[in-house]
Amino acid sequence: MNRKIESILVPTDFSIRSCDAFEWAAFLAKQLDATILLLHVLPEGTAQDLVSSPGNPWEKVLDKEDKMMIKEFVASVDANLNGDLVKETIVAVGNAPEKILEIAQERGVGLIVMCTHGRTGLAHVLMGSVAGHVVRHATCPVLSVRGKGLEPEKG
Fold first, then answer.
1. Are 22 and 39 in contact (CB under 8 A)?
2. What is the pLDDT of residue 127?
3. Of the candidates 109, 20, 117, 13, the residue with the CA atom closest to the CA atom of residue 65
4. Using CA atoms, how far apart are residues 111 and 17, in angstroms rounded to an integer?
5. Is the pLDDT of residue 61 over 80?
6. To 10 degrees, the CA torsion angle through 74, 145, 101, 68?
7. Which residue has the higher pLDDT, 15 or 106?
8. Phi and psi torsions of 94, nearest 5°
């Protein structure tokens, strides 16, 4: 198999754990001479609340989210793995797992790097797993990064 990974999609929800995936994505992008697409998915209700605030049109929301993604990325990676690897920031509205898969397919990414939040038991059953859904349905490889500070499951 001779596949070249030209771009890596990195979804983020701005949690500390989701930022752990940035470092892996930056490392891999540098090794593979690939670029990074950062993605933040806003639930529909959140997006509507943000734009309904006076003086907060969609363009301002997008600009704020884009800047936050770049800031979080640059702060999370080693100094020698810089933000120049980021080709594009994307803000989408909808169901996170579906949007991640949709963007990955549309942009033809070669790899998705995302963090698992490590929910187990009832929390996992009730809330589901974005990473798990993406892993099961993605048409490209997915690297699931365990967030720092998460204890491995016992059993």
1. no
2. 39
3. 13
4. 19
5. no
6. -20
7. 106
8. 145, -155
Q: Does the pLDDT value for residue 117 go beyond 60? A: yes
Q: What percent of the chain has pLDDT over 70?
A: 68
Most confident listed range (45-49, 111-115, 126-130): 111-115
- The tokens for 106 are 């549309």
Residue type, 57: P
Spatial distance between the Cα atoms of 147 and 155, rounded to a whole number of angstroms: 19
CA-nearest of 137, 114, 147, 97 to 37 is 114
Domains of the chain, first to last: 7-146 (3.40.50.620)
Listing DSSP states for the chain in one string gives ------EEEEE--S-HHHHHHHHHHHHHHHHHT-EEEEEEEE-HHHHHHHHHSTT--HHHHHHHHHHHHHHHHHHHS-TTS-GGGEEEEEEEES-HHHHHHHHHHHHT-SEEEEEE----HHHHHHH--HHHHHHHH-SS-EEEEEPTTPPPPP-
The reported pLDDT for the residue numbered 110 is: 96
Residue 79 confidence (pLDDT): 58
pLDDT at 123 over 50: no
